[in-house]
Amino acid sequence: MTDKEKAIVMAYTGVCMLTADKFNIFHEYVEHIMHRPVYVHELGDPAIERQIKEKAEVDFMALCLGTDPKIGHWTRNVDNSRRWDKVRFYCSECAGWQTYGKTDFCPHCGAKMDNSRKADNEDDQSDN
């Protein structure tokens, strides 16, 4: 297992695998996935630990499955075939759908979603 893989496992599980002079590999990985500087004292905060785990999930799952992480986006579609209107969001990777809004990961295939872009066919109305 490489040091980067150890950093991924450490970020997701909380099990310390890099110590002493190699701890900086983990710290740099955390700053990369958090998109901001992370101070060492923050690593003991349960809220920060949860955020790190959430952001490391796609890399951890890719490591477990032996694949590169998928990157997808949501496609918005309104289903008028029911008695009530439902907005559905479809995954660009697997075409799985959900009605509860855009999430960071597809619950069907695990693809990390690029939520920085608007869902295809999305107008300026709210997601729900």
Please tell me about this protein's structure.
This protein has three helices and five strands. Mean pLDDT is 80; it is low at 123-128. It has two domains: 3-65, no CATH class; 71-113, no CATH class. Helix 1 (3-13) packs across helix 2 and helix 1 crosses helix 3. The strands form two sheets. A three-stranded antiparallel beta sheet has the order 2-3-4, with no helix packed on it. A two-stranded parallel sheet has the order 1-5. It has helices at residues 3-13, 23-34, 46-65, and strands at 71-72, 74-79, 86-91, 97-98, 112-113. A hairpin with a 5-residue loop joins strand 3 and strand 4. With 128 residues, the protein is of the alpha+beta class.
Secondary structure: elements and pairs:
Blueprint: H1 3-13, H2 23-34, H3 46-65, E1 71-72, E2 74-79, E3 86-91, E4 97-98, E5 112-113
Helix pairs in contact: 1-2, 1-3
